[in-house]
Structures are given as structure tokens and as C-alpha cells.
Amino acid sequence: MGVGGVLVTAVQTVGGGVCRLVARGSADGRVRWSTDVHNCLPVRGVQPLLHSGDPLLYIHTRGVTAFDASRGTFLWGQLIPETRVPGVVVAPDCVVIAHAEGHIGVHPSTGRARWRRRQGAHPVPTGFRVAEAPGLVHLSVDGLLDALETSTGATRWLHRLDDKAMAPVTAGGLVLSGGYSSAHGGDVVTALDAQTGVVAWQRLIVRDAEPDCRLQLLGFRSGLLYVKSARGGRHRLTRKPKLPFLAALDIATGALRWRWEHPDIDTRPALLHRASVVVQLPVPTAVALPSA
User: Pairing mode, if any, of strands 31-38 and 49-51?
Assistant: First the structure.
């Protein structure tokens, strides 16, 4: 996770229920800061770090903890006892924490709850208001893509996705998500209009018989969506397996613009930072993005 010249390269479990966040300078790789978080382990299958303005968000089994990205100092925490947090989605003025009982909308700068919403119920405001204009935040819950109003938590629109669809990302007026599609026979990326939920395009990334999505949406640069696939599919004629890969898709059309393969990026983490994708091979390695 890259923030303001600092690259957070590791979330290390050091024993005794302690996790250590380590941040390095993006230019020289030297350690800038590290901090230990007690009794808050990462959630399996959930990206542990997200960036919301200046705060760096660490997602763990008890909730979300925010740190100053440049210094590593504690800012705020939202703990949800006795539940595993499935995920967190960030919008410009709202961090939505999805947990076993519903959702909490949190103001990213202060950590104050704006609204709470239980599954199947209407959202309940907390009385905390901010000056920012209302927007939308998009969640993937049990195969449904849910567009929520950041100010109230109310649903604007719903769209059915695969049951194992990944957390969506937004850019250029679109919301994009990856998931396995039985109709396409593999992993696909779907792009929808962020305001209305109308499908703009859908692109098959990997043709594979295993019904579990192995894509990771890394982020955007210069009109391209960068994707990591932990599997490469198989050649049509020989049926031999292809290598795992990184790819760049045109945001407007979904067309493939770039592809980079390597056998060791299957289950290893990757992140988009400035003009490269940083992957573990097994040490952090920067793969240059294609030139414009």
C-alpha cells in the first residue's frame, strides 16, 4: 500500500496475537516506521490495508484501526467484538465496515460513526453530520452489488453478481468487480455505471472450470485498470496451464492493453504503486507499468 512516498510492504504476524505493520520509503526501500497491533490479526481472504485520504486503515478480525500514513501513529479504531470483519470499502467521505450483523458508515478523518445498518433493515443515523456533499459507496455482499448513499446508508441500486465476487472499485464513473461467471466459464471483470447500476461492459479474464474467483483488482493508472490473476487458465489446443499474470484493461471498454506473466505471483500479494506493480518474488519487486 503506497501513501505519500511511503510504501507499507508487510503485515507480519510476530506471535502472541501481535501483528506488525512495516513501512518503507518508496524510493530507497528503507524502513520509515513500524508499529505493533495487539490482538488484531488479519482476516483471511481480505486485503488488510486500505488508504482513505491520509489515514491508513488496517482491517483485522476485531474491526478497523486507522494510523497516520506518514508516521504510523494511532488515529482511531472501530472495534466489533466477537465477529470477523468480512471487509471494508472506502469512499471519499465514508468508510463502510461490513460485519456479520450489517454495516457501519464511519467518517474517515475522525472515526465517528455516521450511520449503522443491520442486515435486512433500514439504516439508523447516529446524528453525526459532515459538510461533504453526499456520494455513493459500493459494497459486494453475498453476491449482490449494493450502492449505498454515504450520508444515510440507504440503498440507491442493487445488482446481482457471483456469490464470491470481490470488493468493487470505482473510477471514471464506473464501478468494477471481479468474480467467477458460470455463463462465461471463468473469471470475469464487470463494469457498471456507478450512479445507475447499468452494465457498461463485461470481460472474460481467465477461462477455468474451478468456480472460485482468483482475481485481484489493483487499481487505476492513465485510464487502465490493473488486475492480478493467481491462475492463467489453459491453452485451448494443448490444455497446458498458463502462467499467473498481471494485466491492464481499458476502463472505457474492457479491452486488454497489457499482460505480464510470472510463475511465482500466484498467491503472493501485489499492489499498484506509482508507475509500477510491486510483487513478492519472493522479495518486493517493482514491475514497470506499460508506457502511455
Answer: unpaired
Task: Express each pLDDT in 112-143 by its tens digit.
Answer: 999 999 888 889 988 887 776 778 999 887 78
How many CB atoms neighbour CB 80 within 10 A? 16
The pLDDT value recorded for residue 8 is 62
Per-residue burial over 54-77, b = 16 or more CB atoms within 10 Å of its CB, e = otherwise:
ebbbbbbbbbbbbbebeebeebbb
Tell me the domain boundaries of the chain: 1-85, 87-160, 169-292
Q: Exposure of 201 by Cβ count < 10 A (0-12 exposed, 13-18 middle, 19+ buried)?
A: middle
**What topology does CATH give the domain 169-292?**
Thrombin, subunit H (2.40.10)
Residue ranges of the chain whose pLDDT lies below 50: none
The tally of CA atoms less than 13 A away on the side-chain side of residue 269 is 17
pLDDT of 59 = 85
